[in-house]
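Run log, item B.
One chain of 402 residues. Sequence copied directly from the ordering sheet:
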Amino acid sequence: MNRSRRAEESNAEIAMKPIPYARQSIAEGDVQAVVESLRSDWLTQGPVVPAFEQKVADYCGARYAVAVNSGTSALHLACLALGLSPGDFLWTSPLTFVASANCARMCGAGVDFVDIDYRTGNMSINFLSEKLRKAEKTGTLPKIVIPVHYAGQSCLTREIHSLSQRYGFSIIEDASHALGGEYLDTKVGSCRYSDVSVLSFHPVKIITSGEGGMVLTNSETTERTLRRLRSHGITREAVDMEQVPHGPWYYEQIDLGYNYRMTDLQAALGLSQTERLDTFLARRRSIARRYTEDLRDFPLFLPFKHPDTRSAWHLYVIRLCLGAIGKTRQAVFASLQNAGINVNVHYIPVHTQPYYQRLGFGWGSFPVAEKFYAEALSLPVYPDLTEEEQGFVVERLGEALG
């Protein structure tokens, strides 16, 4: 059988099974870890959660880590722990999932956005600096800024930290895409240039715990507040109590908190996944390198890699040269979907969502993010994507653009 015939048969086999843009990688060791947790004495509030927290804190280089039941919960608790409240403002990127902004509204605070750097999709330092300068004059400076590490590449957090020192805001890194990424030779999540960093363990992220999230910080005070808020605002620590304990059973509700706890079942999966974290990252980077090589002559913009960063490659986002190909993004999207390649688009700018339009935002508010969105297409990236599948994606993309 000649090579062309073999390639045709291989492509036919691949086309029978849809290729997602992302998916979890579950090994037998992950399954066994969850089974062991099921057979233990603890399904929740047991020893596996703190073990998972310590493992991630050590990996990222942060002093503390607090696990919760989702990345959204992590963002919400981070805002509360830093004192965000009604009358305050939080600024974030418009090119993100809605949770990066919703966490402010959940605290009763206002939201505004900072337009992006067209090359990276990350918050623009120039736009942020100019917006802060104007806000200082009008007395509308933000309490918190959330830079989002889009697609796995870190924002320029050193520059953002420098601005925070001048203008007095706190920084929450939304690192949901970026576990294992690096900035200035430091792991994302170290909180070197931020007050807290937030991770997500949703199935499409770098590692998964099913659902889950984590807040990293180097502040003991912030860590204690986070632990209290994730469990109804309750403490069993005598140092935090306002009254004399009645006995060893005693606890006090200090704050209005939430049930945002992670179960030991979730933590068992997450802890097991950390054993393959570097393997996952190596595979994602290999996939990204091949895309960059194979797509270099296609009529599109490839992801820009800032020299100060090393991406975790949660997403591989291309931008179509729509004028050159003479087709709409929708036509290219449909062509790939019809070939069984479930590409996606990240993200519809948050400020264009109906909820945020009712708050006064709309199309035209942040033109760079809107231009980026209009051209963006996320190609499949996940550790179990095979060489043959990736080749099929490249081939069909070429046909869709032709």
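Observations after the first pass:
- The mean pLDDT is 96.
- The two ends are 29 Å apart (CA to CA).
Flagged for discussion on Thursday.
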